[in-house]
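To fix ideas, we reproduce below a protein record of this kind.
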Amino acid sequence: MQFGPVRNFWRSALRSVMVISTAVALALAQQPQPPIRVQVNEVVVPVTVTNLQGKFVSDLEQSDFKIFDEGKEQTIRYFNRERNQRVVVGFLVDLSNQSRGQWKSLQDAAIELVLNLLPGDKKYAGYLIGYGNEAELMVNTTSDADPIVDRLRKISPSGGAAFYDALYLACTSRKLVDGEPVDPRRVIVVIGDGHDNASTHTLEQVLELAQRYQVTINAMSTDAYGFTSDSGKNLVRLAEETGGRVEYPLMNVYKDVSGFLSQPSDEGNYQLKVGTGGYTAAILGSIYKSIANIAGEITVQYVLRYVPNEVDESHVKRSIEVKVDIPSVTVRARTFYYPFSP
């Protein structure tokens, strides 16, 4: 028998099958594939509660809280009100020209904040990012306050403000601590007015990033004229939607000073003049009050955790609302989260 023709037939058929299989594989590869989604199993919500006087309320029980996901009440599976929980704090300092006017006071405030929040205990860590024309990681994550303080003493403002790039850098490009973002928690403290004129990233991008990385943003605003500008409003939005707060130490500095606006002078109604001890004392007093408020915001927090009852893909992001069953208090917590990875 002659097997040559049969062998050649099967070789030809096999080559045809391989060509068809390759073509099918290429066609499938070119078709859009459904994204792989990873659901958030547990949602972590740090919460701060203050009374009408702005003082922290730290003695509440789990039963005092209710938490709602897309308007539906959830079961709180974890509750912690322990003081001084583990935390990683990013210090973001505005080094643009707009900080020049009060730079010495703001520099001292930044140093004081670092010393307050990094007392030498290993459960506290921090890092320093300065932003002018570009954002720079100046000191990577450490529990030692000294290198951050040393660097703060050497820097000075100049140029533009890449604020959003600084937030992006804080979320993506530093050394992590084991256990983040649950234990320790992630916090950012901005010392600046929120303006941006040099970033490659946008407000919406860094806000989403902060929510996905479970970062709480607090700020000590350098704006002495309120927050009517878009930059001030953006700073407030970043803080409120991530569960933080904004302090304004340079606004209404003299409201508690006796005689202010009651003693006219040639320069106008200013009892305290630049260059006098009274002026310096008023500024520093207001700054240190803001430092105490921000430090308290970070160290006096409740932490709630829950597993959503139901999550569907109709919501790209889901709303969170935390309520406390006592009157006349202010509750600060993140306002939404992303149930699926991008």
Confidence is low (pLDDT under 50) at residues 258-264, 268-272. The chain is about 30% helix and 25% strand. The domain at 87-299 is CATH 3.40.50.410 (Rossmann fold). The chain has two domains: 43-80+304-337, 87-299.
